[in-house]
Amino acid sequence: MIKFSIIIPTWNKKNLLKKNLPLVIAAGDKEEVELVVVDNGSIDGSVDFLKKISAETKSLKINLLELPRNFGFAYAVNLGAEKARGEFLVLLNNDVVPEKGFLKPVGRVFLDPKVFALSLNEPQFSWAGGEFKNGFLAHKPGEKTKKIHHSLWASGGSGVFRKRIWQELGGFDLLYEPFYWEDVDLSYRAWKRGYRVLWEPEAVVHHLHEASVSRFPKKYVDLIKQRNELLFIWKNITSQKMFSEHKRFLVKRLRGKPGYFKVLLATLIKTPQVLVRRRQEKKAAKLTDEEVFFRLAKKK
Questions:
Q1: Which of 29, 217, 250, 281 is the most exposed place for a label (fewest CB within 10 A)?
Q2: In the prediction, which pLDDT does 210 show?
Q3: Cα-flanking dihedrals φ and ψ of residue 64, to 5°?
């Protein structure tokens, strides 16, 4: 029986796969874990390497999904989740190495049916704290603790998600392509539906930060980050009071930073899609935005 499906999206990172994949395989329990690798149209020999290691590996079932071109991070993960047979989806970037037995504490946490997702412990970080401040979402790593803690989101590069609820939520929203904010969005939508997102200090993984978006120009990456922040707010913050606050501070930001108009225009292009999703989220929500942030303020 497959309990955990480890999903790794990859694109032209054969060097990382050769270095890290054997360590991922060694960390998994062969009787309860499958490995789903989604290749986004690599041309560096990644697919040949994956086929070779799949044939050689006897301890862990490897399911290789090949895409003809790069469809992006969220699309690849969603495909992996769709094909996964496990009850829980373990999302790992190809530069993340888990410690042996990292899934043992995870199973205990998911005994609570209200837990949707769990962020794994990258030692240099902790749980994700957040508050709605000055019309925007302010977030930062919380204070280190040895206890399980609420988290604003579970990382899309080192997190575990209950597949049943993942399917209910529709997985990562491709609205945020090509990258950033998909995991924040998914987790927040779960919170508003009454589910919980936690951080588990005993489930340790090491994020080596060897895969990055550095191949893209810095100005482009910054634009996408800021655009997706606005998309998140426009889609998910349905509290009239909080959204009014956002509009006031958005105007202030535009007055103080004329260059921010470019971010606004990039966001406005997606307004029709955002409005459809906003109506859907407002209808599906069981908690208000205020209630979500109140719960996040609690430790667990």
A1: 217
A2: 67
A3: -95, 125
**How far from chain centre, in Å, is Cα 137?**
17
Using the 3D structure, point to which of 188, 207, 226 is the last residue of a domain: 207
Token pair of 168 as six digits: 């209910």
What would the pLDDT profile of 151-173 be if each residue is shown by its tens digit?
A: 999 999 999 999 999 999 999 99
Query: 207, 241, 276 — which closes off a domain?
Result: 207
Whether 213 maps to a domain, the answer reads no
- Please indicate, yes or no, if residue 212 is contained in any of the structural domains: no
Per-residue model confidence as pLDDT tens digits over 231-287: 999 999 999 999 999 999 999 999 999 999 999 999 999 999 999 999 999 999 999
- Tokens representing 133 are 């401040």
Our CA angle for 200, 202, 205, nearest 5°, is 90
Model pLDDT for residues 65-82, shown as the tens digit of each residue: 999 999 999 999 999 999
**293 assigned to some structural domain:** no
CA distance 47 to 96: 19
Number of domains in the chain: 2
Asked whether the beta carbons of 299 and 149 are under 8 A apart, the reply is yes
- Cα separation, 142 vs 127, in Å, equals 5
